[in-house]
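Fig. S4 source data, part A: sequence.
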Amino acid sequence: MRKRLLPLEKYTIDVEQDQAQAHLGKLMQQPEKTTQALVHRINQIVTQSQDTGLILLDIGQLLCKEFQADCCFITINNDNDTELFENQWCSQALLDADAYHDILSIHQQLMDSPIVQCTNEPLTMESIQKITNENKSANHLLYEDIKSVLTIPTRIKGKTNGIISLIKFQNYNWHQSEKEILKSVESSCALAMAQVSQTQLLNQQKASLHKANQHQSLIKQLTTLNFSNLELNKMLQLVIQSTAKSLEADRGLLILLKYTDPMFRNRHKKQVPQAKANVIGVWNKYPAAINKDQDLEIMDKSFPLSECGLCQRVFLESQTPIIMDIFTGRENKREANPLFATHYFQSTLLMPIENQGNVLGFVVLQQEINRNWQSSELNLVEMVCTQLSNAIIQSQTLRQVQSLVDERTEQLKRSLEVQAKLYERTKQYVEQLQELNELKDEFVSNLSDRLRYPLTNMRMSIRNLRLPGITPERQTQYLDILESECTKEINLINDLLTLQKLESQQEEPQLETIDLNCKINHLVAELEPTLSEQGISIAVDLPKEPLHLQTETESFERILQELFNNVSKYSDKNTKVYLQVIHRVEEKVDQVNIKITNIGNGISPEEATYIFDKFRRGKGRWTPGTGLGLALVKSLVQHLHGEISVESTPIENSSLSQICFNLTLPQFATIT
């Protein structure tokens, strides 16, 4: 590789022929003095120069001035490195002329000439021509603007360490004294070149040490990140940022592939798979140089693999990494996806992230200028890709394991929840069974009493009727007892049969139209004596206009009888029972609402939920009964397509409550 430094000064030389002759005469008269002065000046330049990069430039300017040359080229050939270090000093006219590139070509030919490399004498193009015994003119090596060249290799310890070339644009025959003077200063120039070469080597070693430290720091960062608890995407962003900074790249991208066919990941198949490339991490040294928002825009962007010829080369070519620069041609740049911005970055390095032949993604490093990637740098990028591959596979494995653990944990959680629900359900069933068992025992006990008590009275009456000498009055009394108790038994059995029939068979009621006001007045008249014996009075609130109701008369009467029977049992003495009938229309349906309100012990919200269930009786109420009355009422109400509810409202400053049974029946039969 050739590294060129731009000239720091411009010097204008306009030498006439007579001036050249005068200068030559001066050199011929005092060659030793001229040589000593040149050596002294060269040594001064070497010792006093603060910048070794200017030493060759100053020496070139000095030689051009002393030899009246138009240009002086000085090149160092460093054996410790393949890189050449060169500098030149040229006149202002030459810098503005097209001959500059011709001078570079001439100097390159002299450097490559084995004759120049082997001699220790100053050579002209003519002398080189004579030694090679070529019949062609020596000027075949020159170009139109270059007329004369004098060159000499520099040696130190017997080895060539550089070359000096003096160039003129006029035809000129170099005098022997000029050659001797150039030969005399060759050793001083060689020492100067050696010092520049050593300084260059030292700078390269410092740069290499700096790079090594950066690379070592990068390796430590990767190791630390690999054992961190960072989320994968955040870790990948830090990795591409650290890698790009360490390698002094201008931009870094980290791309992961998501395959349409997960089984196709092997690059050795030499096929381009169907996949989507996702940009996971991006770092830009100069974000404002392209677009201040571009890095934010391309983050999390994706593109099909089929739309990027650069990425496809990873699967189609065996070489890795893929390097695209100014020497690879414009076609490859056109193949790259626009996200790579190859119009701005002249050099692009694409290294695949692989695991056992499976391409997981790419690490992309880009440079604004052309860059020659060193093997140590490529090895470092390859190591980074290996670390990334391990981290990605580890993350995927942990994610799969965590997913499996979460799934099993969720299954176990659901299983425990199901077991808990089963336990609660079983517990509820056990409690319900215990409660039903208690209800059964209570019902059997109540039913036994309700059956045994009338039978006992009947048995006693029969025995008394068999006694001799019984009077007709006593005989009539015992027969009335027999009839009354027999009626109770029959009614109890009929209630049980009716309840069973209503629950098992859904027969339509036998409807007929009744005058509700008359029916209620009649029922109240029948029930009023019984209630009066307990100190309970009845207040009736009926509509002023006659109100007709289509219902099953027997069921309707039984409902009211059972409700008043319940009121007579649980109303407080010396209280009043209110019966209110209201006609209303709800949702275009005529309804009859009957409210029966009494004063007594309150019904708790819990009791209200099961007060209409079979065999249920109010807690703490020592009132005889089987618990079938309200259950029969509810069944009969449902049979008539009605609804019934109970509401208990505490009375202020009293231990009693106002209990209201709310019965709602359709006024007319529903046509189906």
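Fig. S4 source data, part B ends here. Residues 1-16, 134-142 have pLDDT under 50 and may be disordered.
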